[in-house]
From TrEMBL:
Coiled-coil ranges per UniProt: 12-39
Keywords tagged on the record: Coiled coil
Domain of life: Bacteria
Name of this protein: MarR family transcriptional regulator
Organism (species): Streptomyces lancefieldiae
Amino acid sequence: MPSVRAVLEGREKAALVRVEELRTELERVQAALVEAEEVLNHRVIGLEQYLEALAEQDASVGVEPDRPAVAGDGIGEPAVAGPRRTVARKENGVPVDVLGAEYRLIMAALGQTGDSLTARQVAVSLGWDSSVPSRVEGARGRLKRLVERGWLAENRPGRFTLPAAAA
């Protein structure tokens, strides 16, 4: 039968081994965190530069952007995305040609089907990878914007169609 001292020394060695394992793991995680923070900083800077360039391009072409899309973080100030492209309101006699290229493609896709389409189907019609959620959400945002401006109707949640077909 082992003595109490041997049992306690065994427990101490096991605890020491565990502490060393955790220290090694902590160093690995800290190094990964530093690397991930550096990648994040590069992404943030890249996004800021892209949004600045886009705003400069819009200013030089004379495009007046809509109010920026705002997504609150629930903590403090809201996070503000870049400017959205202008989408004209549909009025009698206004041709589809006033819309941007992607919006015209969406209108053409809906005109060809004669039925309602989902955001995923529209993403595919735009040539986007519909397995990427951000692409589908981008298509949904464009569809919602067209609904707000009177170009489309959302006859059922998530199903978009031309207004005449919605009636």
